[in-house]
Amino acid sequence: HLAEEDFFNVAKFPTIVFESNSIAQTDTGYVATGNLSLIGNTQPLDLPFKHLGKGTDKNGNDFEAFEGSFVFDRIAYGMEEISGAGNIVTVNFYCELLAK
């Protein structure tokens, strides 16, 4: 149901984009400051993340691993408030970036 028009409307808005303006080191990792765009709306967002270290994938490619979590209010992006549905969304992520 979250993919439907009432919430993230993935048929009309298939991507969510975060564009960072800056990255700063913190006591516990890093924070990327930028803008989160979804369902046709853009809001500023601080995205905290940690560098987990280096690794090598099954094809022998070197990568750097990162993980983080951020929270946003879906109402701020134009979604309607619905009785019984929470407005705060938490996104947890893990990614591996290939070293070049």
Overall mean confidence score, pLDDT = 90
**Estimated share of beta-strand residues:** over 45%
Q: What class would the helix/strand composition place it in? A: mainly beta
Element pattern in H and E: EEEEE
What best-fitting shape do the alpha-carbon axes yield?
Answer: globular
Number of helices: 0
Strand tally is 5
Largest sheet: 5 strands, antiparallel
Describe this structure in words.
By secondary structure, the protein is an all-beta fold. 0% of the residues lie in helices and 57% in strands. The protein contains no helices and five strands. Strands 1-2-3-4-5 form a five-stranded antiparallel sheet, with no helix packed on it. Strand 3 (41-56) and strand 4 (62-73) form a beta hairpin. The protein is globular. The chain starts with 16 loop residues before the first strand and ends with a strand. The mean pLDDT is 90.
What's the short story on this structure?
By secondary structure, this protein is mostly beta strands.
